[in-house]
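Reader question, answered in our methods column.
A reader sent in the components of a multi-part assembly and asked whether the whole thing could be modeled at once rather than chain by chain. We filled in our standard form and ran it. Here is what they sent:
COMPLEX SIZE: two components
ENTRIES:
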Amino acid sequence: MPGLKPGMTNIMVRAISVALFAVAAASSALAHTGSVSGGFAGGLSHPLFGFDHAVAMLAVGLWGAFLGAPAIFILPVVFPLVMALGGVLGILGMPFPGVEIGIAVSAAVLGMMVALAARPPLWVAAAIVGAFAICHGHAHGAELPPGADAVAYSAGFVIATGALHLCGIAFGLLARWPKGRIAVRTAGGGIAIAGLMFLGRLL
Amino acid sequence: MTALFAGLLHPLVVPAHVLAIAALALLIGQQGWRLSVPIAFSVAVLIGLGAIAMAYVPKFTEETLLALAAITGLLVALARPLPQGPGVPVAAAIGLSLALDSPPEALALMQANLTLLGTALGAVLLLLALLQGTARLRHHWQRIGARILGSWIAAIAILVLALRLVR
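And here is the structure of the entire assembly that came back:
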């Protein structure tokens, strides 16, 4: 909108907060049914309290930050979209054998990429992350509770996933400094070990 | 006044409506479109609510709204420059779907009409409020943030659409 002063993002933050509050806190209105707040809380907690999901999402953010621009921007945009496609497969009930193994492998591989400071071409990184996004999306989609408000639940888990990416990116930005680089690579190693432990439990 | 207030809050408390309006606000701000796009949205809201007042009973309005939110979110995520021309029908389609998805529960005619009036005000005010923020996205990181939000909105809308098709 031309003619408006640049900068001053506080109004935008307030407006987005209002929108998120409405999604999070609203009860059912008029002809719409379903527990919105319960659905949102359920969706939000699913990636946060599923440790296998959480560490893999952090690794995506860490790797994006490690790879730098444009990966740091592209991965958080691409991941939710590909994850949604995986979610659609889960909702449609399409079988995905070994989806839990895929999630555990995602933590191990992505953590290892960070620990080894791997820098493949962007399309390779996007393909790896995208393939794992389908696993995570399928698990979320298949576990979507029928009683919850679907929009609120989906909003909750997409926002939680994105927030984990942003946390990973924020920590990964430490890689600009030599000691921070060691810290980020160590965190990647920790995530890889956690992924291998998840995998060990499943096999 | 209760009916008017209930209508005013309606676009704020229905997640699909918030998603669609937020996606439209992000797209308008990102593309730097002028007033004709929000005006098309406002006029379409009034037309849709007029149709509801005339006892028109639409079907699949929330699904249509979610599909439009998904498309709009994808356009925000792609961040390709678009002419203003396609923005007008997109905004009008969102406004019309949103209005048709807002039938009041009140049985009394006066109460129902007040609710519809409140819904029109609520939808337009929410869009204008969000535009105050999205129109100021000038910095590079702000534009990236808008693209991320667009991808989230598209992802949510795609998932819910799939769920509606199955259940």
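What stands out: Chain B has a mean pLDDT of 89. Chain B is about 80% helix and 0% strand.
Send us your own complexes using the same form.
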